[in-house]
Amino acid sequence: MSGIAATSRGAGRIPRPAEISSDRIRRRRPGRGSGLAALVWVGPALALIIGVVVYPVIALVRASFERYSLTGLRKGPAGTANYTAVLHHASLGVVATNTVVWVVAVVAITMLAGLAVAQLVSKDFAGRRLVRWALIVPWAASLVITARLFTLIYDYYHGALNTVLLRLHLVSEPVDFLGDDRWAMASMIAVGVFVSVPFTAYVLLAGINSIPGDVYEAARMDGAGAWTTYRSITLPLLRPTLLVAALLNIIYVFNSFPIIYTLNDRNPGYLHDTSITFMYKLAFKSAERDVGMSAAAGVCNVLFMLVVVAVYLRLVKWGEGRQP
């Protein structure tokens, strides 16, 4: 009777939550089926990465060690001859200098201007929403369209900029902004900053909005002024966002092909080119017309970009920058 009673008590006992959860965990232990299910979900992303990133990199490296005809037919292995030709190219020094000037100037000016714009649109004023919407336009527009628009603005004969300068008597004759060596790089840098500021401003605006208001309230109670608060609170707390924005701008500006090519397409040679347009012209618009050399220049570009990013992350102490 006692056994029957114990059995009946056990049958009627309600299991505890801990027992239910442990039983479910045992039943749902991941196995081969769950791995295949996960592969189904991540498969398209992996296929996209392999097709868009991995395969082109492999093809680029392979092409850099081969010779091709003008029509793109493979003529045989070239060894390291393509890399030697690129490193001994007569215009490599000019192209490297232009690349450094382009990246440093555009990124530095963009960060300063983007921070100022972010501070402006973070304030509460009449028409703020309209200003924020207008700020998106240069970023949302196609780079080729924007660059072509600036070729019309910079035009020597009918450009809007020369018209304004002449009417204000700031110049006595039109300025060849894209053809004069004294103005070409500065004109391209201005366009690069114009298209980079909106994205940077929105990244920094997100960082500014994430700073707790209690911190500013405590600073005001301690008697801190506006500049002291900005220097001691805003900038240190904004440092991780500044690092991210600067890193993204370095990569974005370094690989900015449409702006430089569109603004500089009428100038012969490589006098105003960066490494990206230099690589393109080696294959399609120069006396060399060498696909192998162009591929070697592309590999050098990738390696140089990786080195620059690694040095930047090392100098700014990236691991510490994630903590305010």
Molecular structure report:
The longest helix is centred in the first third of the chain and has 32 residues, at 32-63. Helix content is 72%, strand content 2%. It has 2 domains: 2-63, no CATH class; 86-321, MetI-like (MetI-like fold). It has a two-stranded antiparallel sheet with strand order 1-2. The chain is an all-alpha fold. The model is unreliable at 1-11 (pLDDT under 50). The chain is built from 15 helices and 2 strands. The protein has helices at 2-12, 17-27, 32-63, 81-87, 92-121, 128-140, 143-153, 160-167, 184-209, 213-221, 226-254, 257-264, 275-284, 291-315, 318-321, and strands spanning 66-68, 74-77.
Task: Compose a concise summary of this entry.
The chain is mainly alpha-helical and 324 residues long. It has 15 helices and two strands.
Strand content: under 5%
In DSSP terms, counting alpha (H) and pi (I) runs of 4 or more, how many helices?
Answer: 15
Number of domains: 2
CATH-defined fold name of the largest domain: MetI-like fold
Strand order of the largest sheet: 1-2
Secondary structural class: mainly alpha
At the fourth CATH level, what is the homologous superfamily of the largest domain? MetI-like
- Which ranges are low-confidence, i.e. pLDDT below 50, for 5 or more consecutive residues? 1-11
As a whole number of angstroms, the C-alpha radius of gyration is 29 Å
SSE sequence, one letter per element: HHHEEHHHHHHHHHHHH
User: Helix amount, in percent?
Assistant: over 70%
The counted number of beta strands is 2
Distance between the amino and carboxyl termini: 70 Å
Quaternary structure annotation:
single chain
CATH architecture of the largest domain: Orthogonal Bundle
